[in-house]
Write a structure and sequence with these properties.
The protein has 173 residues and is mainly alpha-helical. It is 71% helix and 0% strand. Helix 1 runs antiparallel to helix 2, helix 1 packs across helix 5 and helix 2 packs across helix 3. 21% of the residues are buried.
C-alpha cells in the first residue's frame, strides 16, 4: 500500500511539469494530457521496481524517458492520419496558464516549436527548456551524443529562421 501512496504523491507533484513538457513537444492540449496519462499509467505498472531496483533511474528521469518515447511513438503512429485544414486557429483553446505577462512571447515560441519535426522539437525542449545535458538527452532518445548535437544545431538554426520576424519581441526585457 505504501508504494501506491508513494506513486500517488509522485503523480500529483509531477503531473503539471510533465504536462508542460508534453505540451511543448506536441503543441496540442489534449494530446499532452493523453501523453501524461499514458506516462503515469506506465510508471504505475513498474513503480515497485523503480524503488526497489538500483538499476532503474530516478522516477523523474524514468518519467521523462517514458513521456518522450510515448510522444515519439504517437507521432510515428499518427503520421498518415493527420488531416489538413484550411484555417488554423491563432492559438489553442484552454491555455489558462499561458495568459498574462509574456503571453505573446510564449505563444510565439510554441508556434515556432510546432514547425520543427518531432525529434528536433524533443531535443530543443529537453536541452534548452528542461536544461538536460547532451548525455541525458542522448540516453532518453536512445541515440548518440553527436546525433543530439546535430539535432540541436539544426533545430536552433531553423528556430532562428522561423523567429526572425519576432526578434524584437524575443529580445524585450
Amino acid at each position: 500500500m505504501d508504494e501506491v501512496i508513494g506513486f500517488e504523491e509522485f503523480a500529483a507533484a509531477r503531473a503539471g511539469r510533465l504536462f508542460q513538457v508534453a505540451y511543448l513537444m506536441c503543441g496540442d492540449w489534449h494530446q499532452a494530457q493523453d501523453l501524461v496519462q499514458t506516462t503515469l499509467a506506465k510508471m504505475y505498472a513498474v513503480w515497485d521496481r523503480l524503488h526497489h531496483d538500483e538499476d532503474h533511474p530516478s522516477p523523474d528521469a524514468y518519467a521523462r524517458k517514458v513521456l518522450l518515447r510515448c510522444y515519439l511513438s504517437h507521432r510515428r503512429l499518427r503520421r498518415s492520419g493527420e488531416i489538413a485544414v484550411a484555417d488554423v486557429p491563432d492559438s489553442p483553446a484552454g491555455l489558462d496558464d499561458l495568459t498574462g505577462p509574456g503571453t505573446e512571447l510564449r505563444l510565439t515560441l510554441v508556434s515556432a516549436l510546432r514547425q520543427l519535426p518531432p525529434r528536433n522539437r524533443a531535443v530543443v525542449v529537453l536541452r534548452y527548456l528542461e536544461d538536460h545535458s547532451i548525455e541525458a538527452v542522448a540516453e532518453m532518445l536512445g541515440t548518440s551524443q553527436s546525433a543530439v548535437k546535430g539535432l540541436s544545431t539544426r533545430s536552433l538554426s531553423r528556430l532562428r529562421e522561423i523567429l526572425a520576424e519576432d526578434r524584437e519581441l524575443l529580445l524585450q526585457p
